[in-house]
Design a protein that fits this description.
Blueprint: H1 2-12, E1 13-23, E2 30-40, E3 48-57, E4 65-74, E5 82-91, E6 94-95, E7 99-108, E8 113-114, E9 118-127, E10 130-131, E11 135-144, E12 147-148, E13 152-161, E14 164-165, E15 169-178, E16 183-184, E17 188-192, E18 208-210, H2 222-249, H3 251-263, H4 265-288
Parallel strand pairs: 1-2, 2-3, 3-4, 4-5, 5-7, 6-8, 7-9, 8-10, 9-11, 10-12, 11-13, 12-14, 13-15, 14-16, 15-17, 17-18
Helix pairs in contact: 3-4
Length: 293
């Protein structure tokens, strides 16, 4: 029974790695990839878990995407949630669930539709598409050119509104700028460093109220706390992925290690203590020298 389950698990999931990984054939099951450049050109009928320098998803993913990389582009339909962290992230497709993202630069272009919620933390975020759920964003600079069909809560350094928000809105930033296409269908509570703003006729179904309780103190930026929350959730997910990959790729090695501990306990204990002391010392040395520089 156990062997049958193991074989079934291998059939239902695939692991790929390499400097340049290209998926051109349909994957029936979950797909786990680590590579320098990763390109998905065929449907994945399961989850996609990927880490790489450059990641491009050009075809559909039937379930979740969990992605970490320097440059991430999602052009294909996603059947469930997307959780992504990276330097530069771009969404150009339809997401059936939530889009949870943290990065230096985040772009959600005009073709994008997020059926769930958007939770975003990053240096610069631009939302040109449509979010059918709620938006919670924290950014150094946040620009809304698209549509938010429910509520929006945005905190940051600069907020530029040149799109529409159907639900209630909470805005807190050093500077809030209202463009010619800005429109709010319900109440707006806001704070910015210069005090009260003239919302004019941008609010049609409610009122705009200056709320000092939303003030962002220089010493403790709330949006950084929100971004930290996103990254904590991300690291928790990646830790689970790493446990799976270690078990999947290095199962025989781990079994051999267990046999070594059983048959040569004193020797393995000595080597283990040496590693326990030596590894942190090496890490500190690297931080002081190469990585620090």
């Amino acid at each position: 029974m156990l062997s049958t389950l193991l074989v079934a698990g291998q059939v239902l999931s695939q692991v790929r790695s390499g400097e340049d990984v290209v998926i051109d054939d349909i994957v029936n099951g979950d797909l786990y990839i680590a590579g320098g450049t990763v390109t998905i050109n065929a449907p994945v009928n399961g989850d996609l878990v990927v880490a790489g320098g450059t990641i491009v998803v050009n075809d559909s993913i039937s379930q979740d995407i969990l992605a970490a990389g320097g440059d991430i582009t999602i052009n294909g339909f996603v059947g469930d949630d997307v959780r992504s962290a990276g330097g530069k992230i771009r969404l150009s497709s339809r997401v059936a669930g939530d889009f949870v993202v943290g990065g230096g630069e985040i772009n959600i272009d005009g073709r994008s539709v997020i059926l769930g919620n958007l939770l975003s933390g990053g240096g610069k975020t631009t939302l040109d598409g449509t979010v059918q759920g709620n938006v919670k964003a924290a950014a150094g600079e946040f620009t809304l050119n698209g549509v938010v069909e429910q509520e929006m809560d945005c905190r940051g350094g600069d907020i530029i509104i040149n799109g529409s928000v159907s639900g209630m809105a909470r805005l807190a930033a050093k500077d809030i700028e209202l463009g010619s296409r800005a429109h709010f269908n319900k109440d707006v509570r806001y704070w910015n460093e210069d005090g009260q703003l003239d919302f004019g006729d941008t609010v049609s179904g409610g009122t705009a109220t200056f709320d000092p309780s939303l003030e962002i103190d220089d010493g403790r930026w709330h949006y950084l706390g929100f971004a930290s929350f996103i990254m904590a959730a991300w690291y928790l997910g990646t830790a689970m992925v790493m446990i799976f990959l270690i078990q999947y790729l290095f199962g025989p090695v781990l079994r051999n290690a267990a046999d070594t501990v059983k048959n040569a306990s004193l020797k393995s204990l000595g080597l283990g203590l040496l590693f326990l002391v030596g590894a942190p010392a090496s890490i500190v040395l690297l931080f002081i020298t190469i990585i620090g520089i």
